[in-house]
DNA sequence: CTGTGAAGTTTCAAATAATGAAACTCGCTT
DNA sequence: AAGCGAGTTTCATTATTTGAAACTTCACAG
């Protein structure tokens, strides 16, 4: 019996799971399957029935619709816009928050949150840019292994967007190394004048799968608080990873 | 506290339902909402989390995917083919079992079961016939109120299918009155030579909504056992009604 | 650095609830 | 009528739950 578990609740949930697995099950079968006395099985089943988790037709119990009702949160696994962890980051930092993934040689926004951080910014989701042009894209590139990075750089033609952008692949690789070392990427008004951005990688099974970033007016992000912001982003990144694992049933 | 309920299980399920309703909830909020001590709330939440019903991201709990996983039975509310009660009737009587509904002036088969009564007979489902030509259709007509019956009969042209069928509406109405009185309709090889059929109505909110029937070789259905079969069908009919109510969240 | 408060976790005696053997009820079959 | 199986209830014993309080950890402010 693991610590801090309520064994009676656990028992009841095991009964529920058994009923859910079966195309109908009788009281006697529940007794036998879970080694319960008749009256215990009866009471557990009755409680589940009274609370509408199961129903009974003649001698058999079946799982009821309550198990399949959607919660207030409407989502499926791997729906990035539904991840609670991203909302938590946004609310914690009180800055625009972004999650982006790789699609070919592009960075695609899969979640964008602006104040009051309750709903996705639908009009910005799906926005694309070349990987090397944003902090999100660069922090992902910085975490790729040599082979994958080479393959991606081969596919990309580096084009300058602003005077601050790197034109030479070799210099770009050094830049990525620095980002890798820092653990975050910093965008200093390179994409939008007056806006700064900090991005960190999101990992899954030791591989980078996405990037998590905040963006805010330049006066909110200074040399003195970048490290702090990056630390909080990393906490959020780990929470995203965990949430994905849970939602995938790992 | 109602009888035969396990209060600890109930408490745990109330916690689960609260978590499911909220876009994230903290231990403190659960305590407050359900008037539980800190350690009790903690243990209930921990048990639910350990069994994968909920998950925790930093200080907040969210409902997990386990609640939405489909059970072995794949179905939605009002999917007639998914009703367990019909399977129970078939297995009890060990005869071909049918459920039919009204569509316009037709009787449509919405579930058909043959031995070994594990799967729907898909090729027969959706089969249509005129209401007056089958025991299922007739038992439905027999339970309609005068106005609805008149409206339906007006829309229908009665055509003989076999020599045993009624050609005259007046006689047909008497026939329906007899069926109403009996509480079941009996098809004596009128549709298929060698096959007999017994059908009863299925009610919902005091209105006939469908018909439930069995069909078998003539030697399995005799004058002496019709009443018995009809009684069992009526039990099944009530079980169908109940199951529909449960699935509709009544 | 210290102190504070909040969240998380654990302890343990008292209180409460769960348990299960057995009795009872009901319906069906022989 | 008796027997059987399913469903329901009883009640003394046992096990579990409960909650106050202690402890731990963390973040933040001064």
UniProtKB/TrEMBL annotation, chains A, B:
SUPFAM superfamilies: GAF domain-like, Winged helix' DNA-binding domain
Molecular function terms, GO-annotated: DNA binding; DNA-binding transcription factor activity
Gene3D superfamilies the UniProt entry points to: 3.30.450.40, Winged helix-like DNA-binding domain superfamily/Winged helix DNA-binding domain
Boundaries of every IclR-ED domain copy: 66-246
UniProt key word Mitochondrion: no
Domain HTH iclR-type: 6-65
InterPro entries in UniProt: GAF-like_dom_sf (IPR029016), HTH_MetabolicPath_Reg (IPR050707), Tscrpt_reg_IclR_C (IPR014757), Tscrpt_reg_IclR_N (IPR005471), WH-like_DNA-bd_sf (IPR036388), WH_DNA-bd_sf (IPR036390)
Protein name, per record: IclR family transcriptional regulator
Entry annotated with the keyword Transcription regulation: yes
Pfam families: HTH_IclR, IclR_C
UniProtKB keywords: DNA-binding, Transcription, Transcription regulation
Source taxon at top rank: Bacteria
One GO term of the biological process aspect: negative regulation of DNA-templated transcription
